[in-house]
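To the team - glutamic acid complex, inputs and output below.
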Amino acid sequence: MAAQAVPEARFGDALRAAAGELPPGLRTRFAPAATGYLHLGHVANALVVWGVARATAGSVVLRIEDHDRQRCRPEYEAALLDDLAALGFSPDEPPIDSFRTRTASAYRQRDNGAAYEAAVARLDAASLVYACDCSRTTFAAWSAAHGRAWSRPGCPGGCAGRSLRRGRAGLTLRLALGGGDEAWTDLVLGRQVGEPVGAQAGGDLPIRDRHGNWTYALCVVVDDMRHRIDLVIRGEDLLDATPAQVRLGRLLGRAEPPLFLHHPLIRRADGHKLSKADGATSVRELLAAGNTAALLRERAAGVIGLPEGWQ
Ligand code: GLU
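Output:
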């Protein structure tokens, strides 16, 4: 991956310049996973999302990414709605209270299985989907034997040619994205080139995991199409996922990929990105400890180097 992060010190200028060039009326989105409480990293992401939308007369779609039925919980969804409201972030679509009724929503992934099924049927018609029984251990064994990680299309077990029966428990569904790189231009990082592979292990893209969940990789592309998103703004930890998303969008009939803007992350002192497991930085706890919403916004804005006035 050719990606080079922009230092926080330069991010603000790059962001302001990028926003200045965008056409008005773009649709962007804030798409948290309901796997834990929002943390300062989400505040930073929300500031960029809402900031760009505000600066360009665009709109913000809120989407609950709860495709992982084992890890997501309704109480985390309720908490993230409360926290967003407390922080002063209000989506243009849908009305935030529409999530609170717990009736089905077009903006909550667990309610939209039919959309993912339909996408997979389309990919299936092109013979691009196969069941795979390779586990992390299979990939690790291949790496140990070859002295490098699997980094090609396919999978170490050659499952694309094995016609494993789909319904069997414990199988992953993979999508043969094909070889070759994808190139795209990030609004802040500039031209990017990368291989469209499944994030961690390499190999063809998992679209349904072995627990039967549609994966982030599939849902995010289907949803960005369904929700007519033309600007994706997110942390630079997802840069490597972008080539596969560009490729998948094309396979699903998207004429042009969305615009992408990846921003710096808030990191812990040891350099790791914040995660939902870092309770001490959850928005809930910080607010409960007496910090104001304005202070949290300021703190997040300061760490990633947002321009003056964007907090
Ligand atoms: N749901 C993802 C997350 O919370 C964000 C996905 C995206 O912005 O593409 O990390």
